[in-house]
TrEMBL record:
The lineage of its organism: Bacteria, Bacillati, Actinomycetota, Actinomycetes, Streptosporangiales. InterPro entries: AsnC-type_HTH_dom, Dimeric_a/b-barrel, Tscrpt_reg_AsnC-like, Tscrpt_reg_AsnC/Lrp_C, WH-like_DNA-bd_sf, WH_DNA-bd_sf. One of its GO terms (biological process) is response to amino acid. It comes from Planomonospora venezuelensis. SMART domains: HTH_ASNC. Keywords: DNA-binding, Transcription, Transcription regulation. Residues 8-69 form the HTH asnC-type domain. This is DNA-binding Lrp family transcriptional regulator. One of its GO terms (molecular function) is sequence-specific DNA binding. It comes from the Bacteria.
Length: 157
């Protein structure tokens, strides 16, 4: 068995890659494809879930296919003492796909999805109406050259 790096060995990486490539494959078939027992696959998955490596098994959804083809990144300047309330308010806006407290210029970076540019503006206006949010700066996404991904990190030796 290969040595573990960051808690993953070669079998773990192969298992994760297989699940990413064929997410609807059952555990028995995964075990067959990997050449290990079903119990081994189950135990490995359980461990990676418990360790926080695997964070979900749900489908990856496309904002564009759901009717939200416009994506934007918005930087919010906020009052630092209000961060917890601002975070909760941002989470309540469905079009906010993710938000991160950052260092450097701005305080919170948000990835937004909208039906069109006007809708994105409405989402930004909702964010600006949150008490403690001072101002925003937004860029519209023209195209995606590298989609969100994590698998390459698991594949590193």
């Amino acid at each position: 068995m290969a040595a573990r790096r960051n808690g993953l060995d070669d079998l773990d990486r192969r298992l994760l890659r297989l699940i990413a490539e064929r997410p609807r494959t059952g555990l028995l078939e995964i075990a067959r494809l990997l050449g290990v027992a079903r119990g081994t696959v189950s135990a490995r998955l359980d461990r990676m879930v418990a360790d926080g490596v695997v964070t979900g098994f749900g489908p990856n959804l496309s904002p564009a296919a759901l009717g939200y083809p416009v994506q934007a990144f918005t930087t919010l300047e906020v009052e630092q003492v209000s961060r917890a309330d601002i975070s909760a308010a941002l989470e309540a806006i469905p079009e906010v796909l993710e938000a991160h407290i950052v260092t450097g210029p701005g305080d919170v970076w948000c990835r937004l999805a909208g039906r069109d540019h006007e809708h994105v503006q409405q989402v930004i206006d909702r964010a600006l109406a949150i008490p403690g949010v001072r101002r925003s700066s937004t860029v519209i996404t023209l195209s995606t050259v590298v989609p969100h991904r994590v698998q390459p990190l698991a594949d590193l030796d």
